[in-house]
Design a protein that fits this description.
alpha+beta; 8 strands; 3-stranded mixed beta sheet
Length: about 140
């Protein structure tokens, strides 16, 4: 297992550039308004459901649509999400993130880590329309 050591939160919060400098690992790091969130590992049942759905979607999708599993969506420099899987328009294999405009549908299999005790999606799992980094008006990440 790769151990990742994180420094103190940068002034102004974490950005996608900070994520790009982290060592490659199987750990899911997401940003919410510059705050870093580390997702817990998923269960075997969760992984099995993702694989079964991805396999089915891959068989049904037209050739110009790709299935991406656990790949990042960059809403803004300080707002990212990593859904369990998504359908994307891309002819570039091996990418590690997509802009929202490239995503056709994103799927998150709900479990205790992504759902609050009330059964509603948690703040961690869903970017809100009031997020200060998206403002609801910038569909692609800033360079």
């Amino acid at each position: 297992m790769t151990e990742v050591l994180l420094a103190a939160k940068p002034i102004g919060g974490w950005t996608t550039e900070d994520l790009d400098r982290m060592p490659v690992s199987n750990i899911r790091y997401e940003l919410t308004d510059g705050a870093l969130t580390v997702s817990p590992s998923t269960s075997n049942l969760h992984q099995s459901l993702v694989v079964r759905l991805a396999t089915r979607l891959e068989a049904l999708a037209p050739s110009d649509i790709a299935v991406a599993v656990a790949v990042e969506i960059r809403f803004a420099r300080q707002l990212t999400r990593i859904p369990d899987l998504m359908l994307v328009r891309s002819d570039e294999p091996g990418r590690h993130w997509f802009a929202p405009a490239e995503v056709i549908v994103a799927v998150e299999i709900e479990h205790r880590a992504t759902t609050s005790r009330t059964g509603r999606p948690s703040r961690r799992s869903t970017p809100s329309s009031t997020s200060r980094t998206t403002g609801g008006s910038n569909p692609t990440p800033s360079a």
